[in-house]
Design goal:
mainly beta, Cyclophilin, seven-stranded mixed beta sheet, seven-stranded antiparallel beta sheet, 34 strands
Length: 533
Amino acid sequence: MSGPSAGTDVHVRTASDRAVLVEAPDLDTSMRLHRALEADPPTGVTELVPGARTILVHHDPRAVTRARLAAAILATQPDTGAAAASRAVTVPVHYDGEDLTDVAELLGVSVDEVVARHTGATWQVAFCGFAPGFGYLACDDPLFDVPRRPSPRTRVPAGSVGLAGHFTGVYPRESPGGWQLIGHTDEVMWDLDREPPALFAPGATVRFEAARPAATVAPGPSPAQPSRTSAGPTEAAGALEVVRPGLQLLVQDRGRPGMAALGVSASGAADRTALLDANRAVGNGPDAAALEVVGGGAVLRFRDARVAVVTGATARLGLTAADGTAQQIGHGVPFAVEDGDELTLGAADTGLRTVVAIRGGVVVPDALHSRATDTLAGLGPAPLGADDVVALGDPTGAPFPVDPAVPPRPPLPRAGETVVLDIVLGPRDDWFTDEALQVLQSQPWLVTPRSDRVGVRLQGETPLARARDGELPSEGAVTGAIQVPPEGQPVLFLPDHPLTGGYPVIGAVVDRCLDLAAQLPPGAYVKFRVRKD
């Protein structure tokens, strides 16, 4: 699906069954088209995610077809006016990065010239992505065109200043990353107590200056860690104690849609159906927060009387009263608890992620209007550990009666079983050979233990071979995107994935299969089936 816009070479590519990727010839055209679409969005558009030369356009398929949306986008004239004035930011940098010498050699100049050109240029925040507060800054100095590192680092400290392609950026928090590091800053890039939280906002102009040498040089500051405490007493009406968290125990709700301008992904419950079913079963509203348990193995102690339910992945469930009386609990069946009762979740039998909902909901402080834990961005409450206590809302304030009829779902997968996921190809399937497209669909892909809420890491006997070499400028990616790093082993993005990335996406799992994808346990196999529109 492609075609030219008036006076420009703009193309529209399929990104998923609910998104298209608009490709422009250069950053300037992309930014001007983004401004035009933001000012007057076509019918059905729900969110825009700008990239280096692209705009990821999310849409509601009930409101507009992809063909009609593509036609509306191609008929849109890029904004010809000047960008709205934005604030100017000055960032002191210690130019001591591990890759500074290598960058100078790559660019054919001295280290001193790299620093002089970096501080002498005027940079502008073109777009945000990768992580909350991470801005992609461009300038008009042609010197800065730097390839990413061949192998990304597993740990880049917060405050690190890097170069990749024509962009520079500052890591807001410790994270993996493949940019070439030239220094670090002590400025805090992302602070929820600041308005706006991001130091770099799209359109802002940035000047870097060499910081004064310090007696000791340390990496940039780590952002404040998410709170492990419960909400204030005005909201709390009860509590839940974590006796044992299992592999991972998180607070989740429906997430943070519509925050792309801040570089914030939607996140939220990995299995949306399990969350919705659980909240309905105990009479909560759909926005109530619940607990997401990975792999089972958790023990939770209730500190007051209320109703709870367990959905999602199946496991042996037991309830032990304070006097030692034990009973088995049914999956998907609401049950009453008393003060001191302990709920024990065995190891997951089918699926991977169990949802525990409690009438009144889990009450923790909001972060950008959501109580969800985003593990990549570090937003929301920290993963819960033993002896943590979370507050619960007033059970009498839940808006609906308890509903004992949780809708049945097809069985979730076990290790060793094969799951078929429907996908659509694009937006970068043309980066791969015809043989790779056949391998994608015909070969079973093993779910590896390295999978998490960022993505399901897959392993196949035959890697996916590229038809094109080189690097792809950073562009938006959807939940369900199948991104392929250079080694050819795909990663299926889950809710905590970065908003933008530089590896090509060969296809995307359709929306109705995303909950099933989130329940894939290590050792299961995936086969992809291309859906024909």
